[in-house]
Amino acid sequence: MAAHFGLDIGSTSIKILKSEGKKISVVSLAQNKAGKNLIAMSNAEKIALADQLKAMMKSAGVKGKVVASISESLVYSRVMQFPIMSSPELATAIKWELDQSVPFPPSEVETSWVVLEKPDKIKGDEKISVYVVAVPTNVSDTYVQLLELVELEPERVENEIPALMRAFSTSLSDSSPSVIVDMGSAGTGLVLAGKEKIFGNFYLPFGGEVMTKLVADAFGLPIAQAESYKRTYGMAKEQLEGKVFNVLKPAIDNLIGEIKKLAIAYQNENKESTVAKVILTGGGAFLLGLIPYLSESLEGMEVVIGDAFSGMNVEQKYKTLGPVFAVAFGLSADIS
Predict the structure, then answer these.
(1) Contacts 24+ apart (CB under 8 A), 190-195
(2) 84: left (phi over 0), alpha (psi -120 to 50) or beta
(3) Which of 1, 161, 268, 309 could form a disulfide with 322, with the two C-beta atoms 3.0–4.6 Å apart?
(4) What is the percentage of the chain residues whose pLDDT exceeds 70?
(5) Among residues 83, 116, 137, which one ends one of the domains?
(6) Residues 215 and 278 in one domain
(7) What is the domain extent for residue 26?
(8) Is the separation of the CB atoms in 81 and 168 below 8 Å?
(9) Is the whole-model pTM more than 0.90?
(10) Which helix (H) or strand (E) holds 278?
(11) What is the CATH number of the domain that holds 85?
């Protein structure tokens, strides 16, 4: 049984969740009044957020240890391939790769990595597969400082990909991985994942807010009305003569292109396996008409809604919110 709860602070909403076995014992959802990620907030906004979190925790009846997520937009995470080498050599090679790739000084980055796959036998051209995460020190410090303000003890602070993999672990297979597409308000994270392995990932700075703005600009609408148009008509070709569909189509096609790139890169390395499924999660997963359009465009891949609450005992009023709470659910999971 997990002795902690999960905390997911998004740019538009805050989610708190605690799970105990097959039961979701705590669910709490509130608007992020600042409307931005934690790093972009002023000190006054951070203090207001801390007060809001305290109120949410008191109302939900949770305290103590927490596992919190850092948005993928604030970290650098990649699957890297290296020749067979010792652990000290691997650490040096990872540092060198990060020095070339990460747009931060090496002294201002915290790095963690895990070996995903290492061949048992060496024939000459085998590779070590490593998942590497680099977090700017100011980002991790800001999250820890917020938790201290709220008088919470962080069990760990992690990026969203591990949480998403735990949330959908029963649906994932190492032999035939799935693309998890987490469509948030500020951006969309993609991870090609098996049950224990990560085969690739990508982050798109495109989410619900961008789609709403596209609709607003195309029809000359205020943001609130554009949001209503997006929710009402979405990617349904037959709605409003397909006008909203045509506005959103180029952005969704870009997302489809990134899904295909992940799948092609995987299949080039794994001739006997295929990417069979796309799991949509996050608030954007509910976009009207999105699943039929993705299914049509991603021929050969099954497209499904990723319901983190599937098989769980949860209050009736929250049953449909599994996709919204996927990260928070994964954070709450016991990994001991």
Answers:
(1) 190/258, 190/259, 190/262, 191/161, 191/164, 191/165, 192/262, 192/263, 192/266, 192/275, 193/161, 193/164, 193/165, 193/168, 195/165, 195/169
(2) beta
(3) 309
(4) 98
(5) 137
(6) yes
(7) 5-71+138-170+325-332
(8) no
(9) yes
(10) strand 277-281
(11) 3.30.1490.300
